[in-house]
Amino acid sequence: MNIVVCIKQVPDTTDVKIDPKTNTLIREGVQSILNPFDTYAVEEALRIKEKLGGKVTAVTMGPPQAEAVLREAVSMGVDDVVLISDPAFAGADTLATSYTLAMAVKKLGDTDLLICGKQAIDGDTAQVGPGIAVHLDLPQIVFVKKIREISEDKIVAERMTEQGIEVVESSLPCVITVVKDINEPRLPSLRGKMLAKKKEIPVWKADDLDVEKDKLGLQGSPTMVNQIFAPEKKKGGKIFEGEPSEVVDQFIEMAKEFKLIQ
């Protein structure tokens, strides 16, 4: 089975800072990591490969330094990797990003299953995986928490919804996005780290893909970021102390003070 995993390099959310003058992200000196949700996608791909055989290929789109997350994927056990990097891709929104990734997957050839993390922590849109499915005209199952059954021609999965759990069956090829409940990602092995260090990473540019240039990057993005700002810091809450009955009385008095109750 040929499995493709789309992964992304993102800034570590613990290091994210915003320039108060420009309201833009300060990226200099900020550590980048493999998008946490994508680690679950990689792990699930490897588990399926161990069960059914085949190959796992990881693909990422980003600047040259994004090769770091591909090496991390190799250290976990991924077979092949591809970096999609070109100034033409800069400024891409989720539509342009999903289009570019879809064209890269198309170039890879026969793909039985494409797995993405449910979303990237730097955007939280959860749109790229479904967008890839639309561009490739493939069925999709999003927010997958468990794969009940998978074979060479079909997949049965449980997906999370606001109402509960749905069980969905689809033919393959198919696109799925996974949530963190699906597995526990493995740690890279020493052998894997050694292989990752030596791995040659092919770089595909816009001219290497069968794409329409006006659908790439900023030019192909119908949406744009108008403003980025830090949310207003909330003031600390009040802690009530004492016996339960005393705490209740204190809370009621405060509620009356703020006119929450009469």
Tell how many strands the DSSP assignment holds. Answer: 13
Number of domains: 1
What's the end-to-end separation, in Å?
66 Å
Can you identify the CATH superfamily?
HUPs
Q: What distinguishing features does this structure have?
A:
two-stranded antiparallel sheet, 262 residues, nine-stranded mixed β-sheet, Rossmann fold, 13 strands, 6 helices, single chain, alpha/beta
Write a structural description:
This protein is of the alpha/beta class. The chain has a single domain, classed as Rossmann fold. 28% of the residues lie in helices and 24% in strands. It contains 6 helices and 13 strands. It has helices spanning 36-52, 67-76, 94-108, 128-136, 190-198, 244-257; strands at residues 2-6, 9-11, 17-18, 25-26, 32-34, 55-61, 80-84, 113-117, 140-150, 154-160, 165-171, 174-178, 203-204. A 9-stranded mixed sheet has the order 11-10-9-12-8-1-6-7-13, sandwiched between helices. Strands 2-5 form a two-stranded antiparallel sheet. A two-stranded antiparallel sheet has the order 3-4. The chain is globular.
Give a quick precis of the structure.
With 262 residues, the chain is an alpha/beta fold. It has six helices and 13 strands.
Question: What's the arrangement of secondary structure elements?
Answer:
Blueprint: E1 2-6, E2 9-11, E3 17-18, E4 25-26, E5 32-34, H1 36-52, E6 55-61, H2 67-76, E7 80-84, H3 94-108, E8 113-117, H4 128-136, E9 140-150, E10 154-160, E11 165-171, E12 174-178, H5 190-198, E13 203-204, H6 244-257
Parallel strand pairs: 1-6, 1-8, 6-7, 7-13, 8-12, 9-12
Antiparallel strand pairs: 2-5, 3-4, 9-10, 10-11
Helix pairs in contact: 2-5, 3-4
